[in-house]
Amino acid sequence: MSIMEKAKSTFTMAGRILNEVISFLVFTVLDVLDFLLCYTYKVIDFIVEAEWKPCYCSSAKQAITSNGTILVSESKIMCLTSSSSCKKLQLEEISDTLYTRSSLAAEVSKFTVNELKKLKLENATTVRKGNMRSTFTVNSTIVEMLQGKIGGQKSHPIPRWSDCDCKTCNSWSSSCKDTLFVHVDGAKENVQENVIFIHGFISSSEFWTETLFPNFTKATKSKYRLFAVDLLGFGRSPKPNESLYTLREHLDMIEKSVLEPYKVKSFHIVAHSLGCILALALAVKHPGLVKSLTLLAPPYFPTPKGEQATQYMMRRIAPRRVWPVIAFGASIACWYEHVSRTICLLICKNHRLWEFLTKLLTRNRIRTYLVEGFCCHTHNAAWHTLHNIICGTAGKIEGYLDMVKNHLKCDVTVFHGEDDELIPVECSYNVQSRIPRARVKVVENKDHITIVVGRQQAFARELEEIWKNNSTS
């Protein structure tokens, strides 16, 4: 080895050590800050809203009730939700990463646990299933509602003081709207094909409508009906405070907002990042309707033997490192409930101000849809969606991929940016390893966002070719 190579190797190693030291110091400070913010927010919530709200710093063994949603503890963390219209209970799994996030401050002090032990649980209800016996804790108000003692219309939640309460952000509190915002373009009569576009985390339908939709040919728009949705909790869609933004809720809303009202009998899917998980789940739920599946930067990390899928996914998708910036942001969003809530308080609560300033500073020379999509959500929506969809479905993804491989006949195409620092290229090849017929295209010099933004014309042509090859007519 030459002197230059040795020097380069030494410099690289020194850089890695320095990065590790800086990361340790930064995240130790964030641990302490998050711990302090936890009680700051509890006090403010109590003063402003006259309610001492439990948070996910509590133990998973504690049943926490809030706004008609019941968390119950068994071998898995579940969510027991009620429907006032049909008076039935629905049980769905909640990601344990919402609770289990190692924190230096939490390990140093047991004050959190001691305080949470003071919470009172109500009305223990026993449920039998075969020879198994599981005990759930159900809030008395919900029991009365299910028994019909509390009737009438579903009440709309009061927005949290730390969330924006504008008409867009608090749509379920200010109206009876209970469907997603859907941008519909393309064919209006003689529709031959349908395409559903699903955006990624902290984004909106404008990720598609401002880039791809203007670049589709007239021939495509005369044949294809294009649906771009704002997912539950994002963009102009409802952001209900009582929702836990589970996989079932997201899929139900897509069905209720697109498939049912527009009588969609078959469709192509185009999805980006987090949207890829929802796309796979939607395809598995409607295997006979999907004509093609196009995934951009799918977050799929096979879980090593002996590892817990949810925790492994959280460490891979949000490693505690300060560089690159997008990874640092993911770490804060995933690990620090109260720090990320503070950031949302500064950015999302004031999203109209940031949108105005962006337009003013750029003088409308550039499109501001990325800023609007980034700012227009609530912490409740982002926090739960990140954990319950990206982390919570980590143990299910392989099953979804196997279902697509064995039971769906549609073509699967995967695109990935070569320079993607958030979701590495290996994720797309991991998908191909489970679905051998999937075609992977790595785009040079593109990252997580520029896989679409900046190459919209080329990507529009690629999508049109995919749809043409999978057309029934």
Give a verbal description of the structure.
With 473 residues, the chain is α/β, with parallel strands linked by helices. Helices cover 42% and strands 16% of the residues. It has 18 helices and 13 strands. The strands form 3 sheets. It has a 7-stranded mixed beta sheet with strand order 7-9-8-10-11-12-13, with helices on both faces. Strands 1-2-3-4 form a 4-stranded antiparallel beta sheet, with no helix packed on it. A two-stranded antiparallel sheet has the order 5-6. Residues 63-68, 83-87, 107-113 and 119-154 have low confidence and may be disordered.
What fraction of the residues are assigned to beta strands by DSSP?
15-25%
Q: What's the number of helices?
A: 18
Work out the number of β strands: 13
Main β-sheet, in a few words?
A: 7 strands, mixed
Mean pLDDT: 82
Helix content: 40-55%
Shape: globular
What is Rg? 23 Å
At a glance:
With 473 residues, this protein is an alpha/beta fold. The chain contains 18 helices and 13 strands.
List keywords for this structure.
alpha/beta; 4-stranded antiparallel beta sheet
Write the layout of secondary structure elements.
Layout: H1 3-49, E1 65-66, E2 69-73, E3 77-83, E4 88-93, H2 104-108, H3 111-116, E5 124-129, E6 132-137, H4 140-146, H5 171-174, E7 182-186, E8 193-198, H6 206-209, H7 218-223, E9 224-229, H8 247-259, E10 267-272, H9 274-285, E11 290-296, H10 309-317, H11 325-335, H12 337-347, H13 351-362, H14 369-375, H15 379-391, H16 397-407, E12 411-417, H17 426-434, E13 439-443, H18 456-469
Parallel strand pairs: 8-9, 8-10, 10-11, 11-12, 12-13
Antiparallel strand pairs: 1-2, 2-3, 3-4, 5-6, 7-9
Helix pairs in contact: 1-12, 9-16
